Structures are given as structure tokens and as C-alpha cells.
Amino acid sequence: MHLTNICMRTIAGVFAAGYLSLSAGAAFAQSGDMDAGEAVYAKRCLQCHGEDGDGLGPAAERLNPPPRDFTLGMYKYKTTGFDDDIPNDADLTRMIRDGMPGTAMPGWGDMLSEQDIADVLAYIKYFAEIEDAPEIQVDYGTQVTSSPESIAAGKALFEEGDRCTECHGLEGKGSAIKKLKDDNGDRTWPRNLTKPWTFRASNDPKDIFTRISVGIPTTQMPSFADPNSKSSVSVEDRWNIANYVASLAKTDLVVNPENFVIQGGRVDGALPTSPDDEAWATAPPSTFIMVPQIVGEDRFFTPANDTISVRALYDDNSVAIHVEWDDRTKSIPGDDKAASIADEELFEDSVAIQFPRDIPEGMEKPYFLMGDGTNPVNLWRWNSGTTDAPQTGTVFDAMGINDQQARADNGELSVSSSYRDGTWRVVMTRALTTVLPETDLQFEEGRFVPISFFAWDGSNSEAGTAHTMTTWYWLQLKPAASSKPIVYGVLAALLSLLVLIWWGRGAAARAKREA
Amino acid sequence: MRIPRLLQATLVLVGVYFGFIVVFDYILEAVIPRSLLTMYMFFVTAGVFMVFTYDEDQMRELAAPIKAMVEDPSKRGVRNVVFLLIPLLVGYGVYDKTMPSFDAPVELRTIHPAPPSTAKIYGERVNLLTLENPFRHYETEDPEQFAEYVEEGAAVYIENCQYCHGDKLDGKGPYAEGLNPTPLNFQDIGTIAQLQESYLYWRITTGGPGLPKEAAPWISSMPVWQNFLTEEEIWKVILFLYDYTGHAPRSWGAANASH
Q1: pLDDT(A6) > 50
Q2: Domain limits for position A12
Q3: Are A383 and A419 part of one and the same domain?
Q4: Which of B96, B170, B175 to mutate: most A Cβ within 10 Å?
Q5: What is the interface pTM, i.e. ipTM, of the complex?
Q6: Are B201 and B234 in the same domain?
Q7: How far apart (Å, rounded) are the C-alpha atoms in residues B165 and B185?
Q8: What is the rounded distance in angstroms from the CA atom of residue A67 to the CA atom of residue A65?
Q9: How many structural domains are present in chain A?
Q10: Residue A85, SS3 per DSSP
Q11: Pairwise CB contact (< 8 Å): A58 & B155
């Protein structure tokens, strides 16, 4: 008993010493050395954030969002109160260490030591002469754990009086009804809450709670803890909203690197022509990353969209491809409301599906950016139309980004579309085989066909070579189940059994004779 | 006790088969395509058969258990089981082969293809074997000037390359995941540290479309930088790549010295 006691005390002592040294380490790490920080800054940060910390590095124009201007001393992602501009050191440390998804800011935790980060933090704070510690912290109260009740309560608050839907839209996709700008006059877009991978500081309910409580300083995202705001809500209700927002994360339309083959399903009866037809639920979606066109002239650096989801169905005669992507704006040139949300010039929204003209025999394919001189591509392109003209589906023959020939509309490609709460859904249908095999891809059951995608957001100045795109993936029109493999398998088994029996009998007879 | 020859041969084949899988899939972390594995195993089986049937006696010893199984009445039970299993296996094999395949075609591509000896860059034929970075000599002769060039290269990099190759030069830029092949990681010891500056110059100026066929130029997202940047900008960005990562370019001199 006595011995155990001593042991316990020793263990407690070791723990206490460990705790002390840990907290001493933490205190040490916090006292960053500004001169050392300047050297780290010059090597790792200056290129984007600028020599003077004003965010005007050489790439500032091409980054969306632009690099932070440290001279303002204002930070978007912080856990101090909405009425205290000064962030906690831990907030800035987190951004430096973990980076900010959906931006050009990488996480430096694998390249910079804790001390390096503390040093550079001291230097960054110096740009705005932040010397005082923050005084007000976010009041988290008691966290409401996520439950169907909490999510339902959060959804009601989200929609009540257009509290959140005003900018984030009914489905949380940020379908815009007004043009947003930050304090610097730069265009900002409301977060698409169904894409957690674009959240700068994670979609953990606690982080979402912080954003709702603090707002996002320098942007039009306000604080909902501010008692002076008529939209403000209690701590408990902010937890409910946070739980609801966290529940919006897409589950079936997320990028999965293993899912790079679009499996086209065979349908008996008519192919669905409407993008909202229930039959599409039977086709498994594949979701791909879209990147801006930064390969050919003119390069485009400020895309508004980052994924596209694709399904395919086919019957005896035709193949129908269903593409779906989030777009905050329905861009119909001539429409006043659309024009008021758009950048200076409003273009049509558009999407294109790319196929090689010929299915390659080996692994060679056309150049992924609209083909090349020896390997042409077919582009099936849909345009959203204007107030004066309806939507269009056009086939292009392309041999490069600057060599696209639109075919006259001969009805070979039929299109239909729908736009709802921040999502476009488009179906394009064409015959499996055409009378022009020299210029058209011919589809065959079971064959793997390279496929890729382009999209234009007309309200985000996307037109011409300014667009988003994917690399090559595969489309396979999945053959319907047939009895052929079973029949062949059974026949082969029977045949080999006969051969074996014949062999066995012959051998036994021979053995007998020899004996 | 001696292991029977037939069992020995079987153990060797099974061992080699799983050896391939362990080495490729787990140690090298590059899953071996099943078609390639089948081809390898064909040669291995042929080799094992030749070794185990080197002369008549060995041949007889190898075949003895099979012969006994078929001919010896006392082994009837084993024989019946084997004679049932083999047709089942054959049947399954045929069934499996005639089932339509849902595996996309495998694409094997050379990451660092052999460079040509000359290439057409900025409208002129350039000899890549003798080409050198015109700014490299400042590193020893005028370090201050050299640092300035590196800084200019850094600006070119941030403005043009970080979207894919990343702020940290680790190949994890904001758009990297949407590309196939993924952008090269310059921090990795297996990339620019193994290459000469002239090789980088060739890869940067002529980009994806300038690759030879074995490197699948049709999927590389590397732009043709001679369309966007000047010769000097490209040499400076090369200085920056080596400076930032701390790697040294390979040179003909070093290569000769090591031989």
C-alpha cells in the first residue's frame, strides 16, 4: 500500500514536471524573435505577401482570394470577439501551420518549425504594429452536439428572415442575389457550404460556430453575436446553425480519385431527356476536379467553380450524358438581374464534353486541351442562351484551343437543362453511331472512351479561353448482363472434366496391363 | 525429410508470385498491373519448369506424384477431388475472362524521358548537351548579383508556376490534384537533383507537347513556356528552383568525375 502510494506520487511528480516543461516550451515558442522572423518571411512569405507586407507580391493579381495585407492588421479567421480586431496568436499560428484550403496559402507545418512560425508571426504582427493582446474572446457557451433536432432548428434559423439564405442561398450553395465586395473593393463570393474542402478553417461545427459569431472581418459576412444586429442569435442557436451548416457537406458528389470511370448504365425504354428525371438516380455519378485553363493563351487564374459531376445512360440508339455543377449565378445575357450580379461583362454559362474523334488503339489520346493537329476532338457544347435566344447544343470539331470549328445545327445533339438554387444540370444526347464516322466518335458497348470537360461561368468573366477544365477520364457504356460467360464457363468445365476422365481411365488401364 | 520436387516447384512459383506483389504493391507502392504480372509469371513458370526438368531423372521425379495419383488405385480419393477441382477452376477462368472488363486501360508513362541531343527552342536549334545556364557562373563570381537573379526567378515562379508546383515547390499547388500526371515535386531528391539545368530548360521551354511519345505528351499540363516567358526568365527560374530546394544541378563535370 505504502509502496503504491510512493509510486503514485512519483508518477504524479513526473507528470507535473512534464506539464511544467511543456508550458514553459509553449511560452518560449510564443515569444517569437522578429529578426529571425524577417529571414523566414523573406524566404517563404515575401513572394506573395510582398516586401512591405501589403499583399502586393508579384502574383497578387492572379490570386483569388488575394494574399492578406498584413499592414491592415485585420484577419478573417480568428477566435477573438467580433468587437476585438486583434487575433489570438493561436489563430495566426494555425493559418501558417495548416494553410488555408481553397487558396494559394499552403500549410507550412512540415517545412517550418514551431519556433520559425513563432518568429515569423512576431514579424507579421509588426507590419500593423499589433502589440497588445486581444481582450475579448468568442463565448462558446456549452456546445450543442449535432442531432436531427439541432440540425432542424439550425435550418429554420438559417432561412428565418433570410438570415443566411440571403447570400448562401436555400441549399447553401451561395447562389448569389447580390454582388459582394470586401473592404478592399475586391469581388468575393459567398461560401458554397456544401463544399467543405473550400472552408479556409475547416467545417468542424466549432469552427463554423466561430465564423457565425465573429463574422469574417473585411468581408460582408457579419457577426451574428453582435447584439446591435437584428439578425443576431443566441449562443445555443448559433450552435444549431453550425450543426446545420456542417450537415450540408456533399456526400455523393465528392471527388474520389478511384472513381475515374463514368459507368454508363443501359436502360430499357426511353432515355431520360430532362436533367431532373428520376431515372438519373440509377446512374452512379463520378465527380472530377476542375482547374482553370492556365496552359494555353490567354491563361485564366480566377475560376469560380472547382468540381463537376457526371452520369451517363444509354439505350439501343443513343447515349445521354448528365453533367451537374455548382454555379452561383444563372448567367443569361440581357437579363437585368443577372447583369447586376455579374462582373463588368455578362456572358452565357456554358459547358462542353470532349471526346477524341477516334477511340485510340494504344494509349495515345488527343492533347487534353481541345486536341491537336494529328488527333482531333469532338466538343459537345451547351450554351445557356440569352433573353433573345434559347439555349443551344453545338458540336465543334477542334484541333487545339485556337482551332475550333462549330458545325451548323443539324439536330445531331439534343440538349436540355435546369438551374436551381446554385446548380446547373445539363443533359446532352446523341446517337451512338452516326453517318459520319470520319468526323464523329462512334460509341460501342463496353469500350473505354476518353472523356473530359470544360465549363464557363458567364458572370465570372469566363468566355473564350477563360474557362475551367478537367484532365482526361474514361466513359464506359457498361454492357448489360448476359448469360454468355456462364454458358462458356460451364462448357469449359465439362470439356476439361471429360478430358481428365479419359486420361484417368487410360492410365488406370495401362497400369493394370503393366502389372 | 526431403520436400518432394513437385511441391518444391509449386512453392517456388507461389513464392515468386507473392514476392512480386510484395515488392511492387507494398515496398515500391506502385501496384503492378495484373497483365504485367501474368506475363512475368509466364516466364518464371517456363524457367522453373526448365530447371526442374534438367534431365530425365528429374523429369520423372517431378512427374512421379502426378503419375501415382492417376494410376495408383489407392489414391482414388485424392484423384477424384483433383479431377473435380480442375474443371471447376477452368470453368471459373473462362467465365472470368468472358465477363466484360470494367478496369480502365492501364497507362504506363516515362516520367523523365531521355532528352534529345538538340531541340528547337525560341526558333533556334539548341544543343542540349553543351547548353549551360548563363547565370550559373555568378554563384561563385558575384554572389550578390546571383542572389538578385534568384530573387527575380522567384518572382517568375510565384507568378507562373506555383498554381501547380506549389509555394513550397512540393508539387502540391492549389490545382495539382486536378491534373494527371500530377506536377513534379522539386523538393524530392528524385527530380531536379538528378537532372542537368539544360534538361530543365528543355522541359520548361517546350512543355508537355514537347515530350517524346513514351512520356504521353497529350496529358501533361505543363505549358509551353517559350510562348509566355523569355529565355532569361526561364534560366532565372531554374536558379530559383535549385536555390530554394537546396539541391545542386547535375553537371557533365560531376558526372565525369564520378565515373
Answers
A1: no
A2: 1-28
A3: yes
A4: B175
A5: 0.86
A6: yes
A7: 7
A8: 7
A9: 5
A10: coil
A11: yes
